[in-house]
Write a structure and sequence with these properties.
Blueprint: H1 15-34, E1 38-39, E2 45-47, H2 48-56, H3 60-64, E3 68-70, E4 76-79, H4 84-93, E5 103-112, E6 124-133, H5 138-155, E7 161-166, H6 170-184, H7 193-201, H8 213-218, H9 228-243, E8 248-250, E9 262-269, E10 279-285, H10 289-292, E11 300-306, H11 307-317, E12 329-333, H12 339-351, E13 356-359, H13 365-374, E14 379-383, H14 385-390, E15 392-397, E16 402-407, H15 411-419
Parallel strand pairs: 1-5, 7-8, 12-13, 12-14
Antiparallel strand pairs: 2-4, 3-4, 5-6, 6-11, 7-9, 9-10, 10-11, 14-15, 15-16
Helix pairs in contact: 1-5, 5-9
This protein binds adenosine monophosphate.
Amino acid sequence: MAEIAAPRGTRDILPDEFAARRWLLDTHRTVAESFGYRSIETPVFEATELFSRGVGAETDIVEKQMFTFDDRGGRSLTLRPEGTAGALRAVLGAHLDQSVRPVRVQYEGPFFRAERPQAGRQHQFTQVGIECIGERSAGLDAEIIEVAWRFFEALGIRDIRLQVNSLGSTEDRARYRAALLAYYTPLEASLCDDCRRRLHTNPLRLLDCKRDIALVERAPLLWDSLDASSREHFTAVVRDLEAAGIDAIRNDRIVRGLDYYGDTVFELWHDTLQGAQSSLGGGGRYDGLAELIGFPATPATGYALGVERILMVARALGTVPAAAPAVAALVCSVEPAQAEDAASAARALRGRGVRTVLDVTERRLDRKLRAAGRIGARVAVIIGENEQTEASAMVRDLDERSQQTVPLAELTETVLRILGAVA
Ligand code: AMP
């Protein structure tokens, strides 16, 4: 029968990779917690409407990239393509914003998009993110950007290029839409198919076009449509970032591929990754999303970062810490007659926090010792007939190539001393 492979666009995370991933996720959680963000977890599938109404029916994500299916009752469900709509639904659904505002939450987990798989683009990928829900303030926009910045610093990733922009208010965007229509309508015949459609459905999306780049470059600038208070909000964000020692580059072309954003939007780029995949993540303010998904109007701001891409950068820069050996000790018996003594010695070691593998095979002793080296154990504990009779164990230091026989009562202290855990 044919071997079954992992589905296209997915990857297995094998043990060697897992330690680096854990380091990244733990670092994110620790940094977010240092700013008062608490962890949440939401379902990996949601009602399809959450995304078609929240992210926007005309966006690439909803139009082309969702894994959608019907449950047995005929309700449409979707594997979550992003985390903000679900996190907001969870926080507002539980009324967390009624006791404290803003509510600060952080999350990590799998997300799903049916994009053409390539380096840095998978069908299943992992994001870490934070959401700050319940207040409208430039200070909070700057805060979430600072969390991301400190996260990259903690990972040892420098040279992040922070791109920020303002999408302004609903009125600003209506003005901008009119400006875009005035610019694009006379050019309609020369537009690509996607852009002709966008012209009638969602003109802001015209700026996402990767084909007519020259047209995009000459298009009107959103900044010119912003009113004084939108500009003031944006200027305050940049001022707060400067005060935090964070360099922000204003980039008029950052519009983000999701409809729910307004005012501040940003992306974090790194040059190690090329082209469209240079974005490690992004986010912004989404004051309008709560109402789109049926809740009272609630201002909020947040970001999401792609874990696989960040790991690619960290690996390229060599900032991933060396993984600690998974195993410190291997315990084995010389013959099956000592198997129980070996098992109880292994238990005693684990009880003192020593990562211990019990070799239960009936292989020859030299094979068992070779296996100990291969799994990275520093110490081998061997119990043969003599040791069994004397209630002792042979302890071999595999690095120093020395060995000693000690009473079982002193076994754990001896092993801990070799491992350097006891002076
Ligand atoms: P977005 O919500 O589209 O801005 O995505 C935020 C980040 O998630 C991106 O910058 C990527 O790092 C990551 N990401 C998004 N889509 C994918 C994907 N299909 N495969 C891998 N990472 C992705």
